[in-house]
Structure formats: C-alpha cells, structure tokens
Amino acid sequence: MEDGIFELRCKQANNITRALFFFYIRGQIVVTNGFTKKTQKTPQKEIVLAKKRRTDYIRRMEGLT
Q1: In this structure, is residue 54 part of a structural domain?
Q2: DSSP 64
Q3: Exposed site from 6, 13, 18, 59, fewest CB < 10 Å?
C-alpha cells in the first residue's frame, strides 16, 4: 500500500471490510486498524492512523528491551 503498510480485504455481500497491518520482527504481523467501505480507494485518514499506530507500537516494543 504505502510506506510498509499493507491491506487485507474481505468481501461479504456488497461490503468490503479492510484491515491495515505491517510486518514487525521475524515476520510478525501487527494489525493496526480495520474499517468497512464501499469505494475502491482507501481513505487517507485510515492510512495515517495505521502509520501513527505503527510508530506507537514500535516505540513501546523498543522500550521493553
């Protein structure tokens, strides 16, 4: 998708549910947010939210070492 953020899509009837995620250490998948939409384009606000949550997650994980 954009800057290391990826998208998983699941279609049910006329709705498309999407989850944004990123890969962390050793291929660990971290899901940042999910949403339902009916258009093709992913809203920029969802991408920005995913990036913000990724930054927060990495900061917290690095604080544990």
Answers
A1: yes
A2: T
A3: 13
